[in-house]
Amino acid sequence: MAGAHTGQAGGRHRVAVRCPEPFPGHGAEVERKMVNLRPRRSRRTLSAGKALDRGDEEEDSEEEEPAPEFPNGGPGAETMEEEGEEEDDDEAPEEVTFASAQAEAKEDERRLRDALRRDKALLKEKRKRREELFTEQKKRKLLPATLLEKLTSVPQTKIKKSLPRLEKGNTESEKKGKKEKTFPIRVKKRYVACRLKDQDLIDLRQQAAKGFIQKYLYGRGSNRTTVNKFLSLDNKRLPVKKPAVQFVNNNWGTERKQGAKKFKKQWMHKKKLASRRPNIT
Amino acid sequence: MGDTKKGMGEFKVHRVRFFNYVPVGIRCVAYNHQSNRLAVSRLDGSVEIYNLAANSFQEKFFPGHEGRSTEALCWAKGQRLFSAGLNGDIIEYDLEKLGVKYSVDGFGGPIWSMAADPSGSYLAIGCEDGSVKLFQVAPDKIQLERTLERQKGRILSLSWHPSGTHIAAGSIDYVAVLDVRSGNTTQKMLMDKRHPGSQRRRCVVWGVAFLSDGTIVSTDSAGMVQFWDSETGTLVQTHPLASSDVLSIAVAEKEDSMVVGTAEGTIFHFQLIPSRSDGKQSQWVRTKPFQYHTHDVRSVAHSPTALISGGVDAHLVIRPLMEKVEVKNYDAALRKITFPHRRLISCAKKMQLLLFQFPQRLELWRLGTTDAAGKNEDILPLSRNAEHLLQLKKKGPENICCSCISPCGSWIAYSTASRFYLYRMNYENNTVSIKRVSKVPKFLNSALQILFSADSTKLFVASNQGCLHVVQLSEGALKHLHTFHPQSGTLEAMSLLAVSPDGNWLAAAGMSSGVSIYDLKHLKPHCAVPAYNFPVTALAIAPDTNNLVIAHADQQPLPDDKTPLFNQHSLREASENIRRRHAHAFKISKKFQPLLFMDLLDEGTLVAVERPLEDIIAQLPPPIKRKKFGT
Questions:
Q1: Mutate which of B65, B71, B86, B365 to test chain A, going by most A C-beta atoms within 10 A?
Q2: pLDDT digit string (tens) for B217-235?
Q3: Rounded distance between C-alpha atoms, residue B219 and residue B212, angstroms
């Protein structure tokens, strides 16, 4: 059957193609069958209330398979059905009483309502469980009272002053230390303590807004370059080409250089000590 | 990095280049037609007001705040200045007291744009949540009147129709036209999403302008300037200007010329040119590009005779248009203002210390010394390098407004917009220790200018209420000696102070009320120099003759022989004017890089603080890549 071919070829995606009709009289029927195959579910729910009698509906309601699953090899099953239906179309359609159709419709409705109720109950269960989980996590996160005591007793000298005459930061004694990382007390995780007063100035929406500007002006698609390259562009076009404005990167390898300096100091110190010790030969 | 050099005449000059001051980028400019003044707001929240008639002198300065980040600035009726920013507040500035009058929450989240209607009695703000809110400007406050229909994205730019009936709002990917009376959207013009470059970025409409014939001009991030008809919502004209964003637009009052600024630093001038010989039809034509900036031009303004632009590279460029300028004199030249017109450096002469004022900290340096002697134009080697002695960070979110160090070096004072701080310094065997004087009298809450007397016993504070306080300093405590109240009855704040070296006279210059001179021995006002057309830029009293030297914004110094006052070699600020004053003659020396400060240390040594422009540009954010042929 032409219908069968399209059914098999399409697989899940049924295409309502107007195929050449072997039975001219039943072309319309065939087409209708094929078009209705996909949205069968919605048709059922929509017309559940209506007691209209259409041959399709009855036959459709008999096939209770949900559309995405094909327990009986969907396309194949459909084609067999179609073939059966077409033979039946030679005869008069079956008569179905109003009462039975209405009963069927009511049945459908009830089933649907039950399904919805079950779904809602399931969701409610899920939500309740999640809420409980969150409250539990929150309780765990809150520091126990004993830990808070220990935190306040940490000496204020934690705030570093590199050189007493060089740095004079905001070291008021009433502040509890703005950002102190790892404490020398027995804590499992690392805590960062910061003042709530400072948080007022850092509004999340303001941050998001600034992020927007940053993204659009300096973000991925923007055609930005460094100041060094920008200024060196003219140097490249001079008749006597000059090097870039900042030719040497002084920040390169800072850790290695610092390590080397330290090593040199240690080595010289060792040498000094060695030269002082008397030589035992 | 300071080296000493023999200057002209018989001076040794300390050329100081370690003042690492980077001016903050400009975010908004707003021009006021009635008073010919320009308000400029910067990225750190500070606002400056320039008097364009007085040679673009920076008259007023409002220090910034860490929580503020202004996105829009506008003038309203009656010379009132408002700004709005990403913290969601609308702030009104008090132009007399040089402070913030009040701030009102916009209730729409971060505010991206603000515009005053042509009559100046309403303010429209465009918020993050997509709503346009109307505020009514009442005599003492502003009040939320209405919210117009809410749009889908954040409103990044706003413009009123000259009749005040419609507002054009530019957002991401569209421009909407709102009817003010009903609040509905009458038209919505969608931007073309296909533009060169990366396809996934949306088209951001950075600027809109509404013309009186119903044309809306929009500038967007695709680099295009488009003309739309607001009745039908169709695109009339499009000008692809650049491959990067076009960030700002400003239209002249007469609506015959327009200026736009791009992210590459170029500003374009558009003019309405009659296309037919009888002048009936006219068309907007792009006439002139100007490349005065290296970085993004975030804001432009159009005065009747000049194009004004400001951007991330912190230059304020005023470009007079040749066809509009009547008299072709010095005023018709390009003005580029980079440095602030106020004093950022104070010098403790006896101890050879310099105090540098940054917006958020103070740095104390000791000058290097040299023992060598040389001839003219020699660069002398340093026997001891300049040292960084102390860095004092500000407390709280407000930026530092003014600062000073006493000539003996033992007192440092600075002030923010609401508090005054005084510190006592101690120098002993090569270490510096600092102690804060905590009991500062209540009336010293915010100062506009601070000055110490020459013998470091008295402190003069010009407060923002218009009074001048004289405080006696001693080891432990401060004693309030006297307060001079403003004579004329106006509450105008003093902008400049100068004290005579013998401690008898104090001169104070107000913004427009001339210079008043006070007698310190008897603690009463002495006389006043009548006001001149141009504001005072520098003030000094000389040591021997007690002459008062006043420099005005028109660059004509007036040696003034009032009462016995003296001539002194001290020039407070000379950013573009590179001048040096000798004993009785004025000579211009162009040897120095842009000068920020110059002072006489003792008989024969000068200190000059320079700030080469290359050092500043090296610390700016990344600019747009420019493609040059052959590189």
A1: B86
A2: 999 888 899 999 999 999 9
A3: 18
Question: Is A206's CB within 8 Å of B395's CB?
Answer: no
pLDDT tens, position by position, B455-468? 888 888 888 777 78
Gap between the Cα atoms of A227 and B615, Å rounded: 11
Q: What is the mean pLDDT of residues B586-606?
A: 67
3-state helix, strand, coil in chain B (%, to 5): 0, 50, 50
Residue B439: pLDDT over 70: yes
E strand map for B69-204: 70-76, 80-85, 89-94, 99-105, 111-116, 122-127, 132-137, 142-147, 157-160, 166-170, 174-179, 185-190
**Mean residue pLDDT across chain B:** 81
CA gap A281, B299 in Å, rounded: 81
Coil/strand/helix, residue B65? strand
Run of H or E including B393: strand B387-393
Q: Considering only CA atoms, which of B310, B262, B244, B317 is closest in space to residue B27? A: B310
CA–CA separation, B358 vs B20, rounded Å?
A: 9
Q: What is the DSSP letter of B146?
A: E
CA A206 to chain centre: 24
Angle subtended by helix axes A27-36 and A2-10, to nearest 10: 20
Q: In degrees rounded to 5, what are phi and psi of residue B207?
A: -145, 145
- Is B19 in a helix, a strand, or coil? coil
Give, as one character, the DSSP assignment of residue B129: T
What does the DSSP assignment read for B518-534? EETTTTEEEEEEPP-SS
Cβ–Cβ below 8 Å for A224 and B626: no
Exposure string of A59-88, with b = 16+ CB inside 10 Å and e = fewer, is: bbbeeeeeeeeeeeebbeebbebbeebbee
Q: Which residue of B has its CA nearest to A168?
A: B392
Residue of A170, A171, A212, A247 for testing the chain B interface, max B β-carbons within 10 Å: A212
Mean pLDDT of A186-201: 65
- In this structure, what is the dihedral angle of CA atoms A54, A58, A63, A67, given to the nearest 10 degrees? 40
Which DSSP category does A156 fall into? G
Q: What is the ipTM of this complex?
A: 0.76
Q: Tell if the CB–CB gap between A221 and B391 is shorter than 8 Å.
A: no
Contact B625 A223 (CB under 8 A): yes
**Partners of residue B480 on adjacent β-strands:** B471
Integer Cα distance of B74 and B83 in angstroms = 6
Q: How far is A81 from chain B (nearest CA, A)?
A: 49
